[in-house]
Every structure is written in C-alpha cells, then in structure tokens.
Amino acid sequence: MLDLADATLLQTSCRIGSRRIMASDALGIPVRNPATGACIASVPRLGAAATRDAVVAAEVALPDWRARSAKQRSVLLHRWYELVIATQEDLARILTAEQGKPLAEARGEIAYAASFIEWFAEEGKRLDGQVLQHPQPDQRILVLRQPVGVTAAITPWNFPAAMITRKVAPALAAGCTMVLKPASQTPLTALALAELASRAGIPDGVLNVVTGSAAEIGDELANNPVVRKLSFTGSTAVGRTLMAKCAGTIKKLSLELGGNAPFIVFDDADLDAAVAGLMQAKFRNAGQTCVCANRIYVQDAVYERFAEELARAMQALQLGNGMDAGITQGPLIDEAAVRKVEEHIADALAQGAQLRVGGQRHALGGTFFQPTLLTGVNAGMLIAREETFGPVAPLFRFQDETEVIRQANASEFGLAAYFYSRDFARIFRVAEALESGMVGVNTGLISNEVGPFGGIKQSGLGREGSRFGIDEYVELKYLCLGGL
Ligand code: ADP
C-alpha cells in the first residue's frame, strides 16, 4: 500500500457540491500503478447525470464566490497553496503511484503545480478595469473585467497535478466556479488537490470533481449551456471533437493540444549544453510531455559528435519504479503508449534509420521501454509527422539554417520549439521564424508559472500561466456613462 504521512489524502470520492460520491466496487474505475500493474484504488465511473449535478453545484456556488473580493479569494488560494506545499511529499507519492514518473520529478511537479496557485492568488487581485476617454466630452467609458461564470476543465494524465492547478487557480482567482474531469488514469492526485482546496476553506461547489466516462462527461460539459467556458489539455483529436461540440453553445475555449517540437542544434552551439538540454526536453516524464523534443535536427558538422555524446548520456538513465531511489525514467502510462513507440521505431528502421541505442521493451517488463536513439531519420518517416510521446530520440541531419527552419515549420503543430546557437543574430532570426507558441533558446526547460504557455496552429488556443492566463476566465464589460 501507499505509504503516506496523511493517509486521508488518498481520496477516492468525487465531489459534487457538498456531496461525496464513492465508487461502488462493481462500477468503479480501477487506478493502476503503471510500474507494477497493481490496483491502488477505485474511483467512481460517473456519467452525464452526475456531470449535470456538478454543473448545478457550480452554478449554485457562483453568486457567493463571484461576489467576494479578489483579496478574500486570494487569501483562500494562498491557504490552498500552503497546504499543497506542506503535503508535497504525500502528493508526489500519490502522483508517482498512479502516473509512474520518478519521485524526484513528481516532487518537482507538485512544486510547479503549487506555483500556479500562488501566482494566480496574486494575479486575481490585479484584475483591474480601465477608464477610457469617450469621443464626446460629456461621456466616459468604463471597462470592467468580470468572471466568465461556470467553467469546466478536462485534464490529461501526464501532469496530473500541474495541468489542474494551471486551470483551476486562474478560474477561481477570477471568481469563476469549475467542474473538473481529470484523466481516468490519474484521478487520485486531482482528488487529493480538491480535498486540500476544501481544507483551505474554498467552499463546496466552487471546485467539483467528476471521474468517469470521458465521452459522457465531455459531452455534457460541452453541451450544457450553463458552462460558459471549457479548458482542455490533451490530444489534438479530442480537442477538435470538443471544439465542434462546444459550437452548439458558442462556448469559450482554451485548448492545449499536441505538439511535435523541433529541437535544433546548430554547429556553433555549446554541444554539452545542447545534450543536457535535450536530455531534459526529451526524457523528462519518459518523453510523455506535449513539449517534448520530437524531431531533433543536428547540423552536419556536429552530427556525429552530438549523436555520440547523446548516446552516452542516455545510457546513464536508470529505469525502474519511480518510487525507488535513483530512478530517472519510469514506465510509460499504458500498453497503447508502448505500441505507438514501437510503431514509430519500426517504421523508421524500415525506411533506413539506424538504431544507435535501445529500441526494445525493457527487461523490467510491463510498459518499461528502453531509451532509444535513432540516427539517419528523415521527413518521410512517421516519427517526423506524429508526436511519439515516448523515450525515442530521432536525429535528422541538416545543412543550413533556411532548410532547417522550413523543415521545423513543416508541421500542423506549433507548441514548443528549441534551438541551440551562440550566434546573436541567428538567435533572433531563428526564434522569430519558428512557428510555435514557445521557443526555448539554449534551454530545454520552458515551463514555469510566469511564462505564457500555449501553442499556435493545431496545437491549441489560448495561454495558460503568466499574467495572460487569467484572461481566459474573464469577460470584458463596457459601461458607457452619459450625461456627465
Ligand atoms: P491523452 O493522449 O493525453 O490520453 P486524451 O485527449 O485522450 O489525451 O485525453 C485527455 C483527457 O481528455 C482525459 O481526461 C480524457 O479522459 C479526456 N477525453 C478523452 N476522450 C474524450 C472525449 N471524447 N470527450 C471528452 N474528453 C475526452
């Protein structure tokens, strides 16, 4: 069993207003530890009716929550932040147990998740309006920034804590209430966070959590006219479906979807730094992040050296149960994830790529997969077009800057991009030319609460985190004051 300092953080009940809904054994969703296959707990398998109830609960809670001052909401969010930090170790253990990432990464994610709560507790206090000059002398224009109202969030399994707080914190800070559907693979982190929100004094109904059928809950959230806004993080395919469904009620949308990040190493780069950056951008969370480097373009003159140094760094990765000390790569989330990785490798090899490291399921069994390095990869291969979402590093060779920018931009996705160079002019040229919402220049880590996170093209709509992230939960209202 999971060893926690506070065992009551292992919550298995959904939260709809003041109601707590347990999983009846037969109907629950088992939550499995991907490192061992063991069932940790079961959560309720709810559907449309429970989701409607949750929307009603959020609607009932809205007037009081919206009417509080930003400062009053901020005090509660700060308290929530403090509780998350105080229980970081337990939350990290729950996260690793259901998601598989190494405990050190899970601790980092909890700190990252908490940072959004702290950040938006502050930003909520700065939702200021404006007074504008009317074209007529006897009139004035006031612009108010008001909460959108009842909102909904659907979140993925790869960051079971941070993807939640990045949506919930700005929504609550702005005065919105929310219905959250976490991924079925990782609901326990979500339920623990909601429990802490409740302990912090955030009233029942302000944050409701429903677990269960993605299609049923998603449909209800998209179709329900009371829900004014939906924020989704997940695959582009599901994002597209939700966007179409939200058309029925002209809902506001934030979508943080798939990526296919290029990672470019120019021949003037600091190669050691580029290898270190790639290790972070590629192997964090076993390659299961939407900003993971997916296509690695290395300039001809440094290609071989880079491949050798990368191979060496990859061989130092320690695979195993994320709960164990020293582990740097956990299992993949499920069997389907492993099959996709295998498919991408097989396709690349069939088309002439060379296998330099790994390539196989790991001897540990289950969904453990060897860190894999492929060289001689080209644009015709599946791995160039699709997000692999696994520990595979494919190296493409390029000759010049214009060519690599064209290749990097030849994707319907535009989330993150990375490049390494020490040439001042090139840094500006390339950063401005890359078609992506975020660019890491000489760094492989771009996520924090201060920078605006989000994509262009089919990687999504809107920005999360940063001073811009709260705008997603705010409407502008214009008051025209006459007869002055
Ligand atoms: P991933 O590849 O990260 O699992 P998904 O887009 O499948 O991405 O899942 C992300 C979230 O979207 C999860 O909470 C999942 O349950 C939910 N989801 C999956 N399919 C649908 C759907 N048809 N409608 C609404 N939500 C969905």
UniProtKB/TrEMBL annotation:
Entry keyword annotation includes Oxidoreductase? yes
According to the UniProt entry, its GO molecular function terms are: succinate-semialdehyde dehydrogenase (NAD+) activity
Q: Which CDD domains match?
A: ALDH_F5_SSADH_GabD
- Name the InterPro entries for this protein: Ald_DH/histidinol_DH, Ald_DH_C, Ald_DH_CS_CYS, Ald_DH_CS_GLU, Ald_DH_N, Aldehyde_DH_dom, Aldehyde_DH_Superfamily, Succ_semiAld_DH
Record: active site: E256
* Entry GO terms, CC: cytosol
A single GO BP term for this record reads:
gamma-aminobutyric acid catabolic process
* Keywords recorded for this protein, A-Z: Oxidoreductase
Record's SUPFAM superfamilies? ALDH-like
Task: Cite the Aldehyde dehydrogenase domain residue spans from the record.
Answer: 28-478
Under the heading NCBIfam families, the entry gives:
SSADH
Family named by the database record: Belongs to the aldehyde dehydrogenase family.
Give the protein's recorded name.
NAD-dependent succinate-semialdehyde dehydrogenase
Please give the organism. Chitinilyticum piscinae
